[in-house]
C-alpha cells in the first residue's frame, strides 16, 4: 500500500478491536485473580500449624505465642479470639482457624512470614461455640460419721498397701508407731495409688 493511500480500517472497526482486546485481557486477568482470591483450606492451615508449632494446636511453650498458629495475646484478642478462650492454646483448632482467617484478612500472609507462604486468601468462617460442660446431678447427701468413714478409709488404704510387697514394711511400721493418717494424706494416697501399682 502506498504511503499516501487512505487506510482501510474504519474508526468503528478500530474501536471494536480495542473493546474486544480489553475484554479478553480483562477477562483473563479476572480469571487469574480468581485463583489467588480462593479461601485458605484446612490443609493449608494444617501446614502452617505444622511449621509454626509442630502441629500442636494446644501448645504453650512460654515464648509469648500460643496455639497451633502461634498467636500473640494481642493478635488473638484483637481479632476476636477472646470470645472463644483467653489464649489461643485454650481454644479448639476450628476456633483458632476462624481467628486466623480474620488475621489473614487484615494482615495478609505476612502475619506468618515464614510459614504463611502456603496460604491462599482469607474466607469468613464461623466456629462452633465452646461446648458447655454438662452439669452433674446433685446427689442427696446423707449424714455420716466422718470419724468412722476416715477409719474405714484408713483401714482400706493400709490393707491395699500391705498387698504390695515393697510397701508392706512401711505400712507395718506406720501401724506400730500409732501414727494416724489424716484425710489429706488419704486423698493423696488414693489419687496416686496407681503410681504405686495398687
Explain this structure:
By secondary structure, the chain is an all-alpha fold. Among the domains are: 77 residues, Lysozyme; 51 residues, no CATH class. The longest helix has 26 residues. The relative contact order is 0.08. About 10% of the residues have low confidence. Belongs to the transglycosylase family. Rpf subfamily.
Features:
RPF, Resuscitation-promoting factor, 198 residues, Lysozyme-like_dom_sf, Lysozyme, 7 helices
CATH topology of the domain at 42-118: Lysozyme
- So, CATH architecture of the domain at 42-118? Orthogonal Bundle
Q: Structural class, please?
A: mainly alpha
Radius of gyration: 35 Å
What overall geometry do the principal axes of the alpha carbons give?
A: elongated
User: Major β-sheet, in short?
Assistant: none
Query: What is the name of the CATH class of the domain at 42-118?
Result: Mainly Alpha
Total DSSP helices = 7
Query: What ranges have pLDDT less than 50 throughout 5 or more consecutive residues?
Result: 18-37
Mean pLDDT over all positions: 74
| Percentage of residues in strands | under 5%
Measured between the Cα atoms of the first and last residue, the distance is: 106 Å
Beta strand count: 0
Helix content: 40-55%
Order of helices and strands: HHHHHHH
Amino acid at each position: 500500500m502506498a504511503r499516501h493511500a487512505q487506510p482501510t480500517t474504519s474508526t468503528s472497526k478500530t474501536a471494536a478491536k480495542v473493546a474486544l482486546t480489553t475484554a479478553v485481557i480483562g477477562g483473563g486477568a479476572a480469571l487469574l485473580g480468581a485463583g489467588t482470591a480462593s479461601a485458605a483450606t484446612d490443609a493449608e492451615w494444617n501446614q502452617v500449624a505444622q511449621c509454626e508449632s509442630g502441629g500442636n494446636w494446644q501448645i504453650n511453650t512460654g515464648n509469648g505465642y500460643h496455639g497451633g498458629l502461634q498467636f500473640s495475646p494481642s493478635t488473638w484478642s484483637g481479632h476476636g479470639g477472646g470470645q472463644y478462650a483467653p489464649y489461643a492454646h485454650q481454644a479448639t483448632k476450628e476456633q483458632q482457624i476462624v481467628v486466623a482467617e480474620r488475621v489473614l484478612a487484615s494482615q495478609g500472609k505476612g502475619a506468618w512470614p515464614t510459614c504463611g507462604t502456603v496460604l491462599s486468601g482469607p474466607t469468613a468462617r464461623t466456629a462452633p461455640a465452646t461446648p458447655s460442660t454438662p452439669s452433674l446431678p446433685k446427689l442427696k447427701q446423707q449424714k455420716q460419721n466422718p470419724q468412722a468413714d476416715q477409719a474405714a478409709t484408713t483401714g482400706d488404704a493400709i490393707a491395699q498397701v500391705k498387698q504390695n510387697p515393697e510397701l508392706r514394711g512401711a505400712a507395718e511400721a506406720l501401724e506400730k508407731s500409732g501414727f494416724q493418717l489424716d484425710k489429706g494424706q488419704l486423698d493423696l494416697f488414693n489419687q496416686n495409688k496407681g503410681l504405686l501399682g495398687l
